[in-house]
Amino acid sequence: KKTMVVPSLRQASTIVLVRRAANEGYQVLMAKRSSKMKAFASVYVFPGGVTEDVDQEIANRYSPNDSRGKMKVTGIRELFEEAGVLLTKNSDNADLAHPVSAPEWQDKVHNDPGKFQSLLTSLNCEPAIDSLEYIVTFTTPKMEKRRFDTRFFFSVVDDASINIDGGETVEYKWITPIDALRENKNGTMAFLPPQFYVLSLLSKYSDVDGLIHHFKNVAPPTPILPHSVGFENNVLSLCYPGDEEHPEYPGKAGDRRRLHCTMPMGSGGYRYEDNLASRL
């Protein structure tokens, strides 16, 4: 019997950038991946990417006691590379987004992540590591060829000037979580299961204060490693921790916590099944 070789995991971070909107609501920044990308072409994502050595050095320098410091720096750096938004500490707690002439520096940092420290030094500023609140960790299923262990964070800005890099991502939109879920259901906005999960979680909070209060005070969900539990009628079913069939975190007999994904993945729509009393 052939043993399945499970590809190794790469550490990655994603930032859900939250912008206060009219009527006390909020929107999140989502970027559309290029149609030319080998993986997940034309789907909407939150800005993010894989960790680099420089991220640990920067975390040690500016926030040595934060256990998630390295991953937060990864998110901050990738948000800048992809969207031109630099989250920095401000002495007067004004808007976090630093007005930096983005395109030239975006290219530099994209080509050499080590240049991110040079950017911070030249602007005489610190990355706003403390501004990031942890949401959840998603791990790519073992059946996939390229696998990531991705931490999702969010940070709130009053507003931010966006400059999409035009390489991996080609356009962006600010959208409420509820509208994003609606567009996905209508087939007009494709995104993958982790984005569906995070947007569903955020959609429960109608204002920024409620959002912040929740994630500061509630224990985070178990890291999510989805497992395939079947494919029929063009629908892939993934079980999440707490489901009776989840290998690492099984629930009791009859417990269901599943995402049913209609193909094509991302644009076919989702149905979430959860008969457990707790949240997502």
Automatic annotation (TrEMBL):
One of its GO terms (molecular function) is hydrolase activity, acting on acid anhydrides, in phosphorus-containing anhydrides. Its cofactor is Mg(2+); Mn(2+). InterPro entries: NUDIX_hydrolase-like_dom_sf, NUDIX_hydrolase_dom, NUDT19. Residues 8-197 form the Nudix hydrolase domain. This is Nudix hydrolase domain-containing protein. It comes from Aplanochytrium stocchinoi. SUPFAM superfamilies: Nudix. Keywords: Hydrolase, Magnesium, Manganese, Metal-binding. GO terms for cellular component: mitochondrion. Gene3D superfamilies: Nucleoside Triphosphate Pyrophosphohydrolase.
